[in-house]
Sequence to fold (356 residues):
Amino acid sequence: MAVKFQDYYEILGVDRNASEKDIKSAYRKLARKWHPDLHPPGEKEKAEEQFKKINEAYEVLKDPEKRKRYDQLGSDWKHGQNFSGSQQGHPDMGGVRFYTSGDFSGGGFEDIFEGGFSDFFRTFFGEGAAAGTAGTAGRTARSGFSGRGAGRRSPVRGEDVESEIELSLEEAYQGGTRSIRISGSAVCSNCGGSGTAGQGFCAQCGGTGAIPEEKTLEVRVPPGVKEGSRIRLKGQGGAGLGGGSKGDLYLKVRLRPHPVFKLKGDNIETDAVIRPDQAIFGDKIPVQTLDGKVTLTVPPNSRRGSKLRLRGKGFPRKGKGRGDQYVRLVIDTPSDLNEEEKNLYKQLYELRKGGE
Fold:
């Protein structure tokens, strides 16, 4: 009987030298993603098939003995070809025995995953192993993917979740409280997070111990947060399994572009437009800051592009104090000159031209 080779490493998305920790982590992530009861009706069949493959791959790779036997396939695993019971003496198999249908006891194993494990698994490990593993797979899912034995549901802490929060520069500067709405997960009220109800999976959460949830959170934004900063909301992440605590929610800060200010480190930069006469003779001009308008003194003979500093008008620094605000001078001729002003500019022009 020819059966299709199953690349368990590829199914879990891990390297063949992956550690037990990496394999477990990959399995937990994929099992949560593909659990059939977390998919709409039109996608359940596809999710169920993928879920079966993920569980089968994990049951082999988490078990040192099964993994060792599986790895002894040698170079044949690379080709993804079909195998049959007659290959049990293949020189690349390192003595690994393939089981044929005649070796099966005929005692069917039945699990929540209809159809059980693949023909490849049955052929390679035998029906007895498939039956025992099926029970383990069910217990693993019910115990929060802990991989422990029957009757032992070790608490599993919920996953940490990352999302984003978009703030204006003023909100980031001042801090305060923001309301946000997020999608997450909550402990299943039917099974209390155990994933089991009666003798099988909890129908409400599909054995995951968690159900989808949308909620509104009040987020305290500390003053002075910057682009890329993370705000931690303890216990607002993924639901724990088997009585485990909830994970945390991390909100990554995104700052909206500001029409006036640019944040550079702890300092703020802005432009101020002045007239030529103000640049030549100096003046006092109003300038906008994050605290409101202040008066800035423009010194005589100021040049275009000169930067003037407003000390302590920047962003809060770690520890204490604040950065500065730098005001770049932009010299522009007014567009609404009257005749007298035009004549004065003309006199200046002629005077300067005559001196050349």
The domain at 3-142 is CATH 1.10.287.110 (Helix Hairpins). The chain has three domains: 3-142, 161-255, 262-354.
